[in-house]
């Protein structure tokens, strides 16, 4: 299993189809060919999984001019609330710093419980996009943009 397979396995498990947020294999593959796109995988301890070990989480970013955008971040549902997301984000902050990044930004659905994790790591909300995400049950959902100085 290569890293693209690992990313897709996490994505297939982690993203609720109701919101249409998951990317296709082609979209991920194309993104990974771009020079300023970076990714990290996380195993059970939040570190890069060993050969043959499944990934339980991943993060995908794109950077330019000292800023990186978190395009996707996910942890398999059965592995959530075990520190994997926190470890993955801590590794991202460190690797982005090493690349010369001074700010990270991300966007997520309003009401996403991960907002508490992001806030604990220094992300602050800076803008809102009304009705950005689709939602079958309650109609459209706003997107919130967060930034973190690193």
What does this structure look like?
With 150 residues, the chain is of the alpha+beta class. The protein has helices at 3-14, 25-32, 84-98, 115-120; strands spanning 37-42, 57-64, 67-75, 103-109, 124-133, 141-149. It has a six-stranded mixed sheet with strand order 1-2-3-4-6-5, with helices on both faces. The longest helix has 15 residues, at 84-98. The model has no long low-confidence stretch (mean pLDDT 94).
What is Rg? Answer: 15 Å
Q: How confident overall, as mean pLDDT?
A: 94
Q: Kindly report the spatial arrangement of strands forming the biggest sheet.
A: 1-2-3-4-6-5
Report the end-to-end length measured between terminal Cα atoms.
33 Å
Name the shape in a single word. Answer: globular
Which spans of ≥5 residues are poorly predicted at pLDDT below 50? none
Largest sheet: 6 strands, mixed
N-to-C order of helices and strands: HHEEEHEHEE
Helical content (DSSP H or I, runs of 4+): 25-40%
- Into which percentage range does the β-strand content fall? 25-35%
* Number of alpha- plus pi-helical segments: 4
Class based on secondary structure composition and strand pairing: alpha+beta
* Count of β-strands: 6
């Amino acid at each position: 299993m290569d890293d693209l397979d690992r990313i897709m396995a996490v994505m297939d498990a982690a993203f609720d189809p109701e919101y249409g947020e998951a990317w296709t294999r082609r979209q991920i593959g194309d993104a990974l060919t771009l020079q300023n796109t970076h990714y990290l995988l996380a195993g059970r301890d939040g570190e890069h999984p060993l050969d043959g070990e499944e990934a339980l989480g991943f993060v995908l970013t794109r950077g330019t001019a000292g800023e990186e955008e978190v395009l996707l971040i996910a942890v398999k549902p059965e592995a959530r609330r075990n520190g994997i997301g926190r470890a993955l984000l801590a590794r991202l902050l460190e690797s982005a710093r090493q690349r010369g990044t001074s700010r990270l930004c991300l966007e997520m659905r309003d009401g996403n419980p991960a907002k508490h994790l992001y806030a604990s790591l220094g992300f602050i909300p800076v803008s809102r996009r009304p009705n950005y995400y689709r939602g079958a049950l309650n109609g459209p959902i706003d997107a919130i943009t967060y930034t973190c100085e690193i």
